[in-house]
Amino acid sequence: MNENGVAAAYGGGPLPDAGMAGPVLAYSSIRAWIVEGRLRPGERLIEARIAAELKLSRTPVREAVRMLAADGLVVTERNRGAVVRSLGRQDVLDLYELRARLESYAAELAASRAAAGDIAAIDDGIRDFGRAIRRRDLDHLERTRLIGEANRRVHAAIIAASGHARLAHLLSSAVDAPLVFEALHEFTNNELARSNLFHQLIRDTIAKGEPVRAAQLMHEHIMQGRDRILRSLDA
Amino acid sequence: MNENGVAAAYGGGPLPDAGMAGPVLAYSSIRAWIVEGRLRPGERLIEARIAAELKLSRTPVREAVRMLAADGLVVTERNRGAVVRSLGRQDVLDLYELRARLESYAAELAASRAAAGDIAAIDDGIRDFGRAIRRRDLDHLERTRLIGEANRRVHAAIIAASGHARLAHLLSSAVDAPLVFEALHEFTNNELARSNLFHQLIRDTIAKGEPVRAAQLMHEHIMQGRDRILRSLDA
DNA sequence: GATCTCCGGATTGTGTGCAATATGTGTCCA
DNA sequence: TGGACACATATTGCACACAATCCGGAGATC
């Protein structure tokens, strides 16, 4: 596996339940609310209300809101608090192009640097992704959540395998997640199977140490996600 | 000029003086201390001490420290506070490669998107950079500070011209600054003149709308900075 | 002599109060 | 009727107090 916190990065981390510390609990909860659409773009985040709901004081909530602002998930204005960021078509285009460049760079590095343990971690994610898309016993939201979590782990494992701590940090905090979730929500079964295929292709090129192919596949994979988003945005 | 906050990004912004609000003052001050080396890598940031020095309470200082942590300038551990991040040789290599990729992307976009006002802003920065490197009436630190500020403005103007808000945010918060400052500190006059030349070349390719050349020149420009850093790191 | 335990100081984490600021609403006047 | 002003309310910004936690050292024990 790789150095310090690299593996922990990417996405909001595990589900917002367990006995987490205050700010972390608040951060994960709010992030999940935004990612899953319970908080819509443009909606205000009111510290006191959130604090009451999570049974915390305003202090840790405040901290969490600021972290989300640093991530770019919400925008804040002095004395006016935070609102969920809303994204126009151009923003989506820009965001996905950026994510494609960063993650294909991560895949490129992973292909040069990955150790056996890194590959194993990617495989775990891919296995869970495959299982999740075959689940028929869950409602749509719950299944999407499961798929999203597995998808997150696949990408996180690849990024961790890159061994580039700062890149991992950037991708974890700055790159969208609401969009990814929304995209998955709309995926047909064919599209999910295609994602699964690309995960495997990327995994293989990384394992074989072929940086250029890994990068190209990752770029394409993310562009497919972008196109899916744009299609549902237009509808 | 470009949309919303894009132009304001990159680096810590203006010098930490004027009548700024609490957290912003704290953020800028601490950032400057780190960038200019008054706080060395590995050193602890003690909230109470900083609050006393800036005549604030711990609350805004705490917020500023968390912002710096989000930027990756300091690392925090629960119940143990924040210490200035220290970078090994590999970190420097990774960081500069990342910065080169992001900023050359910015230059590429700028070459496609820049408006007349954007070019004018770049020109302003270049003019000040040229003036700063010719100054002989200042001590070394003060001159470096001036050069650094002008350099920051050149790069910020190019990034603003890219019109990519998220990219600007990433570059402003995530990419180093202590390294840039340190690099400038060690630059010979020849090297400063070369930087100035590259700024102009990049500016011209952007103005003429040649994305590929702009990106390549920016990549090279940043790699030159990286090599300078590595040389002084080895000494 | 080495290691373990416990204690005290230092520092961060969290809760809460009050002041500063923005927003919405009603009223008055043209 | 429409607009401007003033006030009431909602919300954030900052300060401070107290609780939780960590770290280093002194002393005890083997």
TrEMBL record, chains A, B:
Keywords: DNA-binding, Transcription, Transcription regulation. InterPro entries: GntR_C (IPR011711), TF_FadR/GntR_C (IPR008920), Tscrpt_reg_HTH_GntR (IPR000524), WH-like_DNA-bd_sf (IPR036388), WH_DNA-bd_sf (IPR036390). GO terms for molecular function: DNA binding; DNA-binding transcription factor activity. The keyword Transcription applies. SMART domains: FCD, HTH_GNTR. Residues 20-87 form the HTH gntR-type domain. It holds the Pfam family FCD. Gene3D superfamilies: GntR ligand-binding domain-like, Winged helix-like DNA-binding domain superfamily/Winged helix DNA-binding domain. PANTHER family: GLUCONATE OPERON TRANSCRIPTIONAL REPRESSOR (PTHR43537:SF24), TRANSCRIPTIONAL REGULATOR, GNTR FAMILY (PTHR43537). This is DNA-binding GntR family transcriptional regulator. It comes from Actinophytocola algeriensis.
